[in-house]
Give the backbone structure.
Amino acid sequence: MLELTNAFGGEIYQAANDNRERKNGPWLPTQAAAKKAGSKHYFTGEPCQNGHITTRYASNAACTKCASDTRNEQNKLRAALDPEWKAERNAKQRERYAADPSKSRAHNKRWIAANDNHRREYTREYMRMRRAEDPTLNERAKERMREKRADPAYVEAEREKERQRYAENPEKHREKSRRYAKENPEVAATHARNRRAKIREAEGFHTTEDVNEILVRQRHRCAFCGTSIRKAYDVDHIVPISKGGSNWPSNLQCLCPTCNRQKNNLDPFVFARRKGKLL
Ligand SMILES: [Zn+2]
Ligand SMILES: [Zn+2]
């Protein structure tokens, strides 16, 4: 067993080591030990002069993060000055990706997991720059998406991917949907209504915006008793689906929960008469 302590304190070393998913056990803690074992890297847990707590090269004790930063800077500079070199490098990258996409994806996933904040900031900044350069960027992206979605083969392929992702980790997806439903109850309710209507083979569908328009039209009052429904409302099919009513917005109204419970599956005329209204 290696002695896992050093000047910087064993705890940080241990914690960092635990996070590194080292395949062959813990990192060697000193340059001498790494050299002796023929290992290219070692890890002390101490920060480099730029504050990186990461591996060092056994050959020259240099910080690997500093070295890769320098390499990246140099490559960026060269790419800017030498478009041919840049094109060649990108082509090679594409080749590597095509040869084994799963390997590249796994690599990207690991990088994203380790650099999530950095990646988000970078993407945000990058998109901000792109939009400043080209204000039509968003619109064109949406247009491309609409074109893609018009192709049934694309839609089916996307659904299949989604099913696979779900099958890989159903609990994660259920948790995500639960969270989304909690944060967006109206959207979730619309989905549920559309799903139920589809199962019952009703014609039509509606969106949350359709329901919002109906609420505005009804001035946020129950379509039957006129009580305020700002706090709670139920979306009701005017002609019930069981009686051949559609699921289009034109067959929807918003009721207070009390009226909705009373209406249940009654014929709308019977219900209206009971409510003392003439239709
Ligand atoms: Zn460094
Ligand atoms: Zn009511």
The first helix runs from residue 10 to 19. The two ends are 87 Å apart (CA to CA). The chain has a mean pLDDT of 85.
